[in-house]
Amino acid sequence: MRVRTQAKRDAIVEAAVALFEEAGYEAASMNELAKRVGGSKATLYGYFPSKEQLLVAVVEQVATGHLALAARRLEEAMAAGAELRSALTGFGDAALQVLANDRHAIAVYRMVLAEAGRSDIGRLFHEAGPRQGIDTLARLMRSEMEAGRVRPADPRLRATQFLSLLTAEIDARIYERDPAPMSPAQIHGTVERAVEFFMAGAVPHGDA
To answer: I want to staple 100 with a disulfide (CB 3.0 to 4.6 A). Which of 39, 60, 176, 182 is the partner?
Structure first.
């Protein structure tokens, strides 16, 4: 019986990241990946039963792991009773760190945009990352609405609106060939402006 190891799994994902960046999701083949990793397709399928599951692993490791971390920090802030502005700012700082500066993450986002019209990659990407952040933000929004600190609305809509504001200033980086790095101060400033705009529209006057 072949023994599966975390090191081997990590090596497969790392090679898949490079292959997906070079060839795109649809054109990347498991045969080529097996050559790069060393071994057979059977070995690859022992770790990842399908190409789709391999994509999810790549997305989680490279492009959306930061969203999971941001969601966990938000849940911790909610449990500690943090006020809304502070909780959203902490979430935003964590969420933007990777997307703002990590070239592999940007490459995966570009791949998803390029392939979304030809496959299920968009749905797989959403399920592997953004959905978790939206779910956590929606729970926060629902709680704040019940307490009267956020105007009544669909909690998921409010969560999506905040995420849209959060990425408004950096969305263009996905379309730039070699975007300049952003400093922590620049990222924090972007987050603060998004939070301020959200609070102005979603919070009843006098409670911000």
So the answer is: 182
